[in-house]
Write a structure and sequence with these properties.
About 45% of the residues lie in helices and about 15% in strands. It has about 230 residues and is an alpha/beta fold. It has a single domain, classed as TIM Barrel (Alpha-Beta Barrel). An eight-stranded parallel beta barrel has the order 1-2-3-4-5-6-7-8, surrounded by five helices.
Amino acid sequence: MVKVKSDQIILALDVDSAEEALGWAKRFRGKVGIFKVGLQLFLRAGEEVLTGLQRLDVPIFLDLKFHDIPKTVGQAVRAVTTWKPLLLTIHASGGKDMMEAAVSFAPKETRVLGVTLLTSLNEKAVRASGWEAGVEATVEQLSDLARQSGLSGVVCSPHEAKKARSSWGPKAEIVTPGVRLPGAQADDQARSKSPFEAIADGASRIVIGRPILTSADPETVLESILSESA
């Protein structure tokens, strides 16, 4: 039986203040696996919220998607090690040298993940951006490069999770944003599936933000995700 487990859920703290973010973390501590801090929250209250999450003793996903020359990315990874994130993202399109530099500066408890293609991009947008091979081939190419560079896994949409799992094997982190509940609005996600479908297709963890944060009854939304099985 396939079922979404609570420790496979990453709650995206896409809010504007440390107070609000830490309120969500306290509310869902023990109910989800990891709390994600992205650019929006990091730029507004990065040090405060990350220190607060450490005090709560919860796993951190630092989703800053570093993308620069190898030396700069290596030093950026070194700069955030004080918060000991469990997961940290870089763009796989930055190339092998950049990804290897990130791995070399990451502490042993941090798993560096390569972002393949953003889940907001559809086939037309990907080709217009210069990836003429299209979504599937480009994600596969970047995923292979990330594996060769020593990363711990990739971030991809649920549509590419099955192939990524096949390539990486059973122990890799295959993290999928772009998860939406059946019948819900896609928002800015162009390549989305349900939480259950993402896990069934090989994702190790799923990222969920707005479906929970904007709900009138967040706990019920979470319970509905955890109760779905086949």
